Amino acid sequence: MNEINSVSHYCGGILISNQWVLSAAHCLEDYIPDNFIVRLGAHSIQTDFEENAIDIPVEAIIIHNNYSFPRPYDNDIALLKSVKQIVYDLQNLLKSDDPNKHDIQTALMNRYDFMSTDGIRVMGTVVGWGWLKDSDNNQEENLGDILQKVKVPIISNKECQEWYRSRGRSLTVSPTQFCAGFLEGGRDSCRGDSGGPLVVRDAKVYHLIGIVSAGIGCALPKLPGLYTRVDAYINWMNRYVDPI
């Protein structure tokens, strides 16, 4: 997503139907639809007129009514409705001559059990244009130009809370959240990745599992990132979007 006034990258999002984008509530609170455009099919955020990218204004923003209740970042999920339907055709995308069809597809969501049961951590992939390194100064040099991805292990809520506690931090991870990151740190989502996807690949299919929500710094030891668990909100999304 981009803010219209500054025409700059602000947060990530996930296309879930031909008119709806999923993102994080903390990206959108205190804003109105006119503040944003949704850019789809982009690879570089420094290129204004990328061949396969399209910019679409936002018609409506729906933030979960219990966002940040009872704790900060609880229910950190929101929907954006585009002003028009997005045209895409997965079967004929690459061979289509229709200029209205772009390299875009919707995310696959279902009630997918992604927690480890055999001691082997499930790896998730986070995608975004967030900062390449954590820093106290908000400079463009911290941003990646090209869409980035990183693989991080999903850890249990109990273990996540224990890791935070060992660093002198208090964290309660609700059943609608999960954590992902390395014990030793080093790889993580970061600022600017908020609202973007964490996906898990299973049998050559990528399942949308989480939304980048919160964290302390980036890639620090025993401080994994916090994600909104998407499958906990399918019923909520179905109130607004055709059944998923």
TrEMBL record:
Pfam families from the UniProt entry: Trypsin
Chief site of localization: secreted
Keywords linked to the UniProt accession: Disulfide bond, Hydrolase, Protease, Secreted, Serine protease
GO MF term list: serine-type endopeptidase activity
The keyword Disulfide bond belongs to this UniProt entry's keyword annotation: yes
Family: Belongs to the peptidase S1 family. CLIP subfamily.
Protein name: Peptidase S1 domain-containing protein
